[in-house]
Amino acid sequence: MISIIVAVAQNGVIGDKNSLLWHISEDMRFFKRTTSGHPVIMGRKTYESLGRPLPNRTNVVISRTQTAIEGCKVASSLEEAMAMFPNEEEVFVIGGAQIYALAIDIADKFYLTRVGHNYEGDTSFPEWKSDEWQLISKEDYERGEKYPYPFSFEVYERKQK
Length: 161
Ligand SMILES: NC(=O)c1ccc[n+]([C@@H]2O[C@H](COP(=O)([O-])OP(=O)(O)OC[C@H]3O[C@@H](n4cnc5c(N)ncnc54)[C@H](OP(=O)(O)O)[C@@H]3O)[C@@H](O)[C@H]2O)c1
Fold this sequence. Notes:
Layout: E1 2-9, E2 13-15, H1 25-35, E3 40-43, H2 44-50, E4 59-62, E5 73-75, H3 78-82, E6 91-93, H4 97-103, E7 109-115, E8 123-124, E9 133-141, E10 151-158
Parallel strand pairs: 1-6, 1-7, 3-4, 3-6, 4-5
Antiparallel strand pairs: 2-8, 7-10, 9-10
The structure holds NADP nicotinamide-adenine-dinucleotide phosphate.
């Protein structure tokens, strides 16, 4: 099964100049706890922004130009990446915008951190059809330990057709 995990600013922005625009330690911990032990699939640019494979996870990088990256598996499409794992295994698509756009209409589950602030950035989350998704959990925070704006962890499942 495919899960998407992302943190999105109030105005839809997810990044700028191939890096993140905020540091929310609660969200970093949520991401680590949620994805650890599961495969993660990412675009080549997101891999470059991380700079190394994420530990305790099989890392798959999607690229049309690269064929080998140390410590990672490389796939030339999302389908090729998904075919590396059994259907029942929860596999996380962790960005960026290009790879989210490939996955949003076929994903089964959607872990959305809503960041309650507007940011200027060059990369935004793609349009998604909120009526196709059922909210199954939500945790709201007025601020973080070190982050001054509100944020929420929302988890959605695709509605049964
Ligand atoms: N807020 C969040 O939760 C979050 C999460 C992740 C990333 N981000 C941000 O998102 C930004 C990066 O996103 P991005 O959209 O620019 O890049 P990206 O999706 O990470 O990577 C794009 C690359 O993926 C490969 N690719 C894309 N579509 C493909 C396809 N159909 N088949 C094969 N390969 C394909 C290409 O690699 P090649 O050029 O090698 O062919 C392309 O250049 C950064 O700012 C990052 O910080 C934010």
